[in-house]
Amino acid sequence: MSYTTSSRTSRGLPASLLVGGAFALTTVANILFRVADIVFTDTDPHRPEGPVESIVSISVVGGLGLLLALAIALPLRRDPARSRIGAIVLGSLALVSLPVWWSGAPAVLGAAAAWLAGLTTDGPPSQPGAARGFGIVGFVVAVLVVVAVLVGNLSSYLG
Question: How far is CA 77 from CA 61, 73, 113, 133, in A?
């Protein structure tokens, strides 16, 4: 008697939810916290390094991170060999971009690396070796940046 199992198992979130969620929970949330600073405080929004300057820099850097992630991931997602290379490149970019964590760019790049490494339900097949490692690192970077943005902003407003 033999038992058959499905070769494809559910691996988590869809890619659009992972990448879009990373963007929304970092870049968009950070912009909304700056808008809240303008609306709910009496401080000058045009002060140096104030909310207006922050909104501009977060929008530009976070938007470029999203565009870069999609420009790399979308053409490479269909071919497993090319997906492997894309996962390594995007995972590396997520690590290199950590100094601009406040923009959300590392989270989006890391989420796209996880997508190309096959860690999503609708992504390419699960990648072996370095590509899988960079996908996992990218996913961890995405989670850590989301936590840093949300906890950092909430603690600054509540503390």
Answer: 24, 6, 11, 17
- d(CA 28, CA 59) in angstroms, rounded, equals 8
Q: What are the tens digits of pLDDT across the range 83-106?
A: 999 999 999 999 999 999 999 999
> Whole-prediction pTM value?
0.89
Determine if residue 120 is left, alpha or beta; phi over 0 gives left, psi from -120 to 50 gives alpha, anything else beta: beta
What letters, b where the CB count within 10 A reaches 16 and e where it falls short, cover 11-37? eebebeebbbbbbbbbbebbbebbeeb
Q: Would you mind telling me the total number of residues written for the chain in this entry?
A: 159
54: nearest Cα among 39, 69, 32:
32
Looking at residue 8, its pLDDT comes to 52
User: Six-digit token pair at 91?
Assistant: 């995972």
Q: Where are the alpha helices (DSSP H) in 2-128?
A: 15-23, 29-40, 51-76, 80-96, 105-116
